[in-house]
Design brief:
Blueprint: E1 14-17, E2 23-27, E3 30-33, H1 38-80, H2 83-90, H3 101-118, E4 121-125, H4 149-157, E5 162-168, E6 171-183, E7 192-202, H5 204-255, H6 270-322, H7 328-359, E8 367-370, H8 371-381, H9 383-389, E9 392-396, E10 403-406, H10 408-425, E11 431-438, E12 441-447, H11 480-490, E13 494-498, E14 506-512, H12 517-525
Parallel strand pairs: 9-11
Antiparallel strand pairs: 1-2, 2-3, 4-7, 5-6, 6-7, 8-10, 11-12, 12-14, 13-14
Helix pairs in contact: 1-5, 5-6, 6-7, 7-11, 8-10, 10-11
């Protein structure tokens, strides 16, 4: 393309979601995948991991194996060629080998014995006519292409053995050239002359063994790779299929109702845990949906009833006030009933507000609270109600201050819930009590003499929108105890129903104990 020219126009790629969740590019109607699926990734990882592991194992094992075996063979040969072995040749009168048939036999016997013992070829080399063996001539004839290059090095070193590797007639040997001196014979000017013992031990078996190991390793590697694919591909397919079922179920759960049927996955792995977690979430959604419906029904009824009554009573009150001779007594009764309905609506509004704050996770305060003083303040709010029903209300603090750690407003709200419930269901001339205690934790116990809680409802009364059935229609909206327990838990405490032998109910609020501020101040000063 020439510089400055305008490139030909091509349509931009359009992205679409494939059924499996991958992204696809469409150029002129041809789909091109831009992302590998989970199955392909798993299989790819299995192949790469297997091949990489085998490659590293081959480099670490097969590479140095032959060298290690060769050096081990050389080390073995060094141990076998001890000084005692060389002494057998030193004692020979090698200067007479060329002329004495007996010396030739002795040398041949020594070489044969050593060859048989170490499974190697042994040759003695030297030039009997030249001091210190300037040549490299075998004393006995040998039919070999060996150039004895290591022997020349040993002649130069004179006293130090020389070990090396070499190739003779196409075969690999570990070589040893060991210099030694021997009697030069009666016709030599020197009584001693330098010779070299040349030892050749074949290591072809090492090459053959390494080749066998290499073939076995390659065969095992191919078998391992095939087995990885045979196991990996079905495993990946099963995993993707299970995840796809969960994805479809999650989408159905999102677009439909919580009652959609979820796939059952009993496998004890992460996908199974995900399926079970999704089932738990579905169960929670069902419970919330049931609670929402119950709340809508309850709230509609509870709102409609007092509003209708309130409207009717205000209309009657208006008629009484507009009459020529108002019935003051009847107007006061209507006004009292209207105020009762108004308070009922206020309680419902307060419960709904508390519920919204709990769901919004509004942060609660945490500070020392004296439960006796707080209880007295809450009891004062119920003096009028207890007086109207002739119900006694007492506080048992055992003469000691009880300090707890929590949010003062939330603790007061829980006490109001417990006292309001107890007062509404308590019969006339009965007794309500609030008892404070501190035994590791700070606690407040509210006890009434009402009908109590049936055994089958003990675990249900703390659920949202649950209303007791044995309250003669005096139960609230089913939110109070649920709000109380959640507030207690948010403050690190607990709200529970105590077992009772007789009639009535006893609820205990436990909170973390806090030291008295005066005691904490004196400890800090000391």
């Amino acid at each position: 393309m020439a510089s400055g020219s305008t490139p030909p126009w091509s349509p931009p790629p359009e992205q679409h979601d494939a059924p499996g969740g991958d992204r696809w590019l469409h150029w002129f109607g041809w789909p091109v995948s831009t992302a590998l699926g989970l199955r392909s990734r798993i299989v790819g990882v299995v192949i790469v991991t297997t091949v990489g592991t085998l490659a590293v194992a081959a480099l670490a094992l097969l590479g140095p194996l032959e060298n290690s075996l060769r050096h081990a063979e050389q080390t073995t040969l060094r141990r076998e060629l001890s000084r005692h072995t060389i002494d057998a040749f030193t004692r020979l009168n090698l200067g007479n080998v060329a002329t004495s048939f007996a010396e030739q036999n002795a040398l041949a016997s020594a070489q044969t014995n050593l060859q048989n013992r170490i499974s190697a070829t042994v040759t003695v080399l030297g030039d009997p006519q030249t001091p210190y063996g300037t040549g490299a001539t075998p004393l006995l004839p040998r039919d070999s292409d060996d150039n004895y290059s290591d022997v020349a090095v040993a002649f130069r070193r004179k006293t130090k053995p020389y070990y090396s590797f070499g190739t003779i007639d196409g075969r690999t040997y570990v070589r040893a050239a060991i210099p030694f001196v021997s009697d030069a014979g009666p016709h030599s000017d020197s009584r001693e002359i330098l010779y070299v013992l040349a030892v050749r031990k074949s290591v072809d078996q090492i090459t053959a063994a390494v080749a066998v190991v290499r073939r076995a390793f390659i065969t095992a590697a191919l078998a391992g790779l095939a087995l990885s694919l045979i196991l990996g591909i079905p495993l990946a397919a099963t995993l993707v299929r299970r995840l796809r079922r969960l994805r479809e179920a999650a989408l159905a759960l999102t677009h439909e109702t919580p009652g959609v049927e979820l796939p059952v996955d009993r496998a004890r792995d992460e996908v199974g845990d995900l399926a079970r977690t999704l089932a738990v979430m579905q169960q929670r959604l069902r419970e919330q949906e049931e609670a929402r419906r119950a709340f809508v029904a309850t709230a509609s009824h509870e709102l409609r009833t007092p509003l209708t009554s309130l409207d009717g009573m205000l209309e009657l009150l208006d008629d009484d006030l507009q009459a020529d001779h108002p019935d003051v007594q009847d107007a006061r009764a209507l006004l009292a009933r209207a105020r009762a309905q108004s308070r009922r609506l206020g309680r419902l509004a307060a419960d709904l507000l508390d519920l919204s704050r709990l769901d919004a996770r509004v942060e609660l305060r945490s500070e020392p609270v004296e439960l006796g003083e707080l209880s007295r303040a809450v009891m004062a709010e119920f003096e009028l109600g207890t007086a109207e029903k002739a119900v006694g209300l007492r506080l048992e603090d055992h003469g000691a201050a009880v300090w707890a750690l929590g949010d003062p407003g939330s603790i007061a709200r829980i006490l109001r819930i417990l006292l309001d419930n107890a007062l509404r269901i308590s019969p006339a001339r009965s007794q309500l009590s609030i008892e404070l205690a501190r035994d590791g934790v700070a606690s407040v116990t509210v006890t009434d003499e009402g009908p109590g809680v049936p055994e089958d409802e003990r675990d249900q009364i703390f659920r949202r929108f649950h209303r007791g059935r044995d309250t003669q229609g005096k139960a609230g909206f089913g939110l109070g105890l649920a709000i109380g327990r959640e507030l207690a838990q948010r403050m690190g405490g607990e709200l529970r129903l105590e077992p009772t032998a007789g009639p009535g109910a006893s609820f205990t609020l436990e909170l973390p104990a806090a030291p008295s501020p005066a005691r904490a101040l004196s400890s800090a000063r000391s």
